[in-house]
Amino acid sequence: HHCCTEHKKQSRQSKQRDHNRLQTMKIITNTISATPLLLLPTLTYAQRRTQTDGTVHVKGACNYNNVLAAYNEAFGGSGATELASQLDNPADVPAAVATKCAGASGPGSAVAFSTVSNKGIQHDRNYFSGGTSWNDGGEQPLNVDAGRVARIATSTSAVRPIEWPDTEALPMFDGCDLRAVTCCFTGKRDNAKGPSGDPEANAEICSIDLSLNYMTNHVLKGYSVYERQETDAAYCTGFAWSSDAADVSNKFKANTLFEISMNDALMGKNYVKNAPGAPMCGCAEKMPTVTTAACTEAVEGYAFTYADKELSVSYAVAFEACSAGDLMAHYEANIGDATEIDALKDYIVGDGNCQKAQNDFIFDNFALVKGGTPPPGSNVDLSKWEPVVGKGALAYPDVGAAKFRELLDASPNKIVRRICKSCYRAYQDVYYKRHTAVPADMDLLEYFKSEWKSENNLMGTDFDLYSTYDHALSGEEYDKWRYCNYDYAEVGFPRDCGKYGYTGCQWNSFKRNGCYAWDVAFFVEKATE
What we know:
34% of the residues lie in helices and 18% in strands. Strand 11 and strand 12 form a beta hairpin. The strands form four sheets. Strands 1, 2, 7, 9, 11 and 12 form a six-stranded mixed sheet that branches. Strands 13-17-14-15-16 form a five-stranded antiparallel sheet. It has helices at 2-33, 35-38, 45-51, 64-74, 79-86, 93-102, 114-117, 121-128, 132-136, 142-145, 147-155, 214-217, 248-251, 253-269, 327-335, 338-344, 354-366, 401-410, 444-449, 469-474; strands spanning 55-59, 180-185, 187-189, 195-197, 205-209, 223-225, 235-240, 271-272, 281-283, 289-290, 294-307, 310-321, 385-391, 415-420, 429-434, 463-466, 520-525. The radius of gyration is 30 Å and the shape is elongated. The chain is α+β, with helices and mostly antiparallel strands.
């Protein structure tokens, strides 16, 4: 009995070995049968991300012409033959493609940005500030420590929208009024350890207002002007999105953030670390002024995946170098209007313009000319503008409600100007143009200082706001600010009013801390002589 039992045991073990060999043979056979899909021409890193694992990415609408073009690109001009083969050589290939396209699945449901790393809010904040083991190295090699990035890139990023980050947790992505994000990397690491080299430099970093990121750099107020050294190396990249919520650039903007910051830069290029005092990535308005930035755009399309002798089609987004060129060229060609383009040029100044941008930055923030003497009246022409009150670095004695009314009554265009050196750049110089008479019992100066109210003070009726003096003079509808709110205790001008929509933390108060508006002064346009 023992002998028979032992014989049966050996028999089972032998069958198991045969089964394992068979499975191995099947795996090898499947791998060999798939080799035509893998014998592609040499591809760029961006192309490899969309065409590995037997997948061809079709740009634009799912139709025969676009599909054939993608297959020709993938298979060196023999796309028609390969496509027909994958469709099992139907009599009418265009009709077969149309059938596949009609049955294609659409984009999946959105996922939270926090699921990308799945390491928690503090990790994500520190990563985008230039820290964590992803930047600095740790006990595990990068491909293990950040292995989830590759899984998200493969399973999620191309097919499911990722939600924009929680801006309370990641404040560097709060207030992207220009709808543009940049990342600047100053180091390069290898898989096993932290920073050990430099990225391939493509940009020069000029300056930054440190107060814009005080929650991450822990500097309440300050400025940095970067003096370039021969050993400096910075790689800057970015993306921008349409104001149309249905546009792929808008729907997949957080996916593009994931792509440029984690999948491409960290895992693809091993680029890490931030410029001192700045986030590694953030809204363009919160990042350093730089000379240029590379550009990535989301391209809508479909994935044609051939596996197990079956061709399946699904919605998929590819992330590619912007067709227009660098970020500024892409923004001018596809994203911004004239005002927005001019504003972004304050942050992406162009090759060779860093020194001029630094000089302008020093003048704007310190009223100094590099190598010169302070001009009178800061950057405000006091022959044209009468100061009425100020605080912080722009402190000026309050002239009082009566004097303010007298000055406004005599003002030729009824314009009040606010200078705020600590606000976002787009909100550092704002013009209030009064349309209606100020009631006798209304203390409009107090409205500006600390009690911004709606009573006798409605935008579009009693006043309008502008970003330049010339806009205020012309009064063109296009140049008027689009949004305003009021009536929050001890919150002064302009509460959350914004050029294009709600913009928080640009308000001042002479009764409490005024968010970013610490250094503020108000002026009334003087009467002409």
